[in-house]
Amino acid sequence: MKEIILIKNGELALKGLNRMNFENALIKNIKSTLNGLGAVDITRAQSTITIEPLYDDYPFEQALDKIKKVFGIAAFCRAAACEKDINVILEKCVPYLKDALQSVKTFKVEAKRSDKKFPLTSPEISRLVGGALLKNYHHLKVDVHNPEIVVTVEVRDTAAYIRAGQLHGAGGMPVGTAGRAAILISGGIDSPVAAWMMAKRGITLDAIHFASPPYTSLRAEQKVKKLLSKVAEYSGTIRLGIVPFTELQQTIAEKCPEEYFTLIMRRMMMRISQRLAEKSGSLALITGESVGQVASQTLPALVTTDAVVSLPVFRPVIGMDKDEIIEISRKIDTFETSIEPYEDCCTVFTPKHPRTKPTIKQCQDAEALFDYEPLVEKAVQDTVFEFIG
Ligand code: ATP
Ligand code: MG
Fold it and tell me: Which CATH architecture has domain 180-388?
């Protein structure tokens, strides 16, 4: 029997041109994630996208795993496609639904008829299909209010589709519909989650990582790439820029009062990131900061880092507790990698008593003790790029 995958769009309130952009981007992203699993035909009609494999033994489970990670999808499922003839539907539905119905006791049938020329009404289709299933599977009962599984029969213009249940999609908006932004990615728990959250709203991701060899190791860089490759399963390919940060950090450590190390380092990170973002067309910066989590994330500290950039800084986890962030990191499978013990450049020169209520003026005075501009520009120029995912 011919099997297909049905995909329901998310964000149904979208209209007109926005809707077209949304659907075009979604189809492009679906094509790209399924690329490599074999040829498929992708069509759309009535806010449903249909994926039809063009050869036998299509790896459906692998394809569903990938589709689960595409933003902009509300729900999806495997379905059998057959001729729009009630006798064919009745004959096909019994064997096709066998596995799905074996493990449940109650079900109901919902019929949807978008082809109004079909000779039976939706309630008639439901009744006939329900009857055929009851006749063949004696353990089943109909429960219209609270069934364990809903069998759906859709009669559309081109074919009839039979399916049992459906899976939740990743939600959000298709990546590519909301502009580009740059995630400042460390090897920690928070920044991959922040990246994922913004990709979920349709943002195309660039990534920036600050490395301070030999204080930070190659392993730390590999960890960041591994984290990004997990995020890229949702966001699509990410361009990563690795910024050589050692010289700036050493100079800060040499010239500035210790209590300002972290703040000034973060202000330098923001300056460099803004320049890289402008070069790549990123319209915003993203960080994994959360109010009060560490000394450099108090409100006054965040004010001093925002003050050096004109781009908006998105901090999607700003109001979340650590355990809420961890819950997402487990869901997107970055947690186990994030807790690997490699050092981050932030932890290399940490002051014993960091300022928690700094002012912009104090930071400016501390920075005025050295000429940072050439070092900032050099870091931008020496950034090395590669594509992840
Ligand atoms: P995370 O779990 O993301 O590392 P954190 O709680 O450890 O967060 P910090 O180390 O203070 O927090 O960093 C705050 C944010 O600054 C990070 O979420 C990230 O966006 C950015 N950041 C920190 N270190 C780096 C780095 N080496 N390269 C790029 N961005 C960084
Ligand atoms: Mg960190």
Answer: 3-Layer(aba) Sandwich (3.40)
> Locate tokens 């298709």: which residue?
174
Tokens for 160, please give them.
């009839």
Instruction: Look at residue 13 in the predicted model and tell me its pLDDT.
Output: 65
Query: What confidence score (pLDDT) does residue 370 get?
Result: 95
**180-388 and 2-171 share a CATH fold:** no
Domain boundaries, the chain: 2-171, 180-388
Please tell me the distance from the alpha carbon of residue 212 to that of residue 55, in angstroms, as a whole number: 50
Give the residue carrying structure tokens 């007109």. Answer: 16
Q: Which CATH fold topology does 2-171 show?
A: VC0802-like (3.30.2130)
Q: How confident is the model at residue 352 (pLDDT cuts 50, 70, 90)?
A: confident
What is the 163 CA–ligand 1 centroid distance (Å)?
Answer: 45
383 lines ligand 1 (CB under 6 A): no
Which of 135, 146, 148, 163 lies closest to 104, judged by CA? 148
User: What would the pLDDT profile of 137-181 be if each residue is shown by its tens digit?
Assistant: 999 999 999 999 999 999 998 899 999 999 999 999 999 999 999
Angle formed at CA 10 by CA 19 and CA 160, multiple of 5 degrees: 95
Q: Is the CB of 184 under 6 A from ligand 1?
A: yes
Closest protein CA for atom 2 of ligand 1: 188
Whole-number Cα distances in Å, 311 to 170, 273, 274, 282, 374:
28, 10, 7, 9, 21
